[in-house]
Structures are given as structure tokens and as C-alpha cells.
Amino acid sequence: TTAETAPVINQRAITVDPSKRTQLLRHLIEQNGWRQTLVFVATRYATQHVAEKLRRAGIDNFNLDLMYGLPGQNLDEALSDLRQAIALQPAHLSHYQLTLEAGTPFAALPPAGLPEDDTAERMLAECLPRLEATGFHRYEISAYAKAGAQCRHNLNYWRFGDYLGIGAGAS
Q1: How many contiguous H segments (helices) and E segments (strands) does the chain have?
Q2: What is the mean pLDDT of residues 164-170?
Q3: 22, 55, 73, 143: which sits with the fewest CB atoms below 10 Å from its CB?
Q4: How many whole angstroms separate alpha carbon 151 and alpha carbon 139?
Q5: pTM of the prediction?
């Protein structure tokens, strides 16, 4: 899928609840399949294109996920990625380091070129003040939001609130 062939995004194509962030990724997966969606969403041009489509549909409350500490990434590239993400003006930004969890296939065969720990720490240290300077408040370990755009269901988990889990992953 490319930005040109992506489904038209409008109020009918996505379930929009003003109390929640837009679940764009789910829609794209349902429309295009998992692998194609990851390729589509992973490109800068496609991300900008989707953000523009959301705005034209009247949707301003959306989240961007931005990873740092990627294979081959240096500090300048991490800062450039952040600048580009901020320029899209999301209401919410998830900014987190690529983490290899012990016991997973990913950790058993890690990708080449991962930044050293001190480089990844510096990436975060340099990104934090830039997020704050552009109006993003850090309210969780890797979650940043404009005023009033915090993800309420995530806050509920962090505050040990009640919730109902349904399905295979709910145990």
C-alpha cells in the first residue's frame, strides 16, 4: 500500500469517539492486511499523508508512535524524526525506545547496528526538552500529550483502575 492507494479516511471509515484517540492503525490493518499496513505507516511521507487525511476529515485528536534507538540510528536522526513527528501536530505522542525483551526471538537474533545504551539514553535526554517546549506534557513513561489529550484508558491502568478485559489476550 502506498499513500496514493491507501483507503480514503473519513468519519465513516474510522470509528471516532471524541473521548478516545483515533484508532487508525486498526482500520488500516483491517483494510490492507498487517504487513502492508506496517510498510505504509512506517514511511514519513505516508504518515504525513494520513495526518492530512485525518485533518480533512475533521479529526485532530490522533496519536503518533515514534521509536528511537533503532538500528543504525544516531542522535541527529532521532532528533530529526522527532521534529518531523511534532510538525504533524498530533494531540498525543508515544515516544519509546526499541527494546529487546529477554526470551523473545527478537532478543535471540538482535538486529545489527543497535545504538549503544549511552547513545539511546542521550536520544531520550535530548528529545524530552523538545517535546516539552512544543507543549507535550509527559504523563507516563513514554506517553506525551497536549493539554487535555491524555489517553484516559492508559491513565486508568497506571492508576490501577477497574477495567474489563475480553478475549484471548485478556488473561
Answers
A1: 7, 4
A2: 78
A3: 55
A4: 9
A5: 0.71
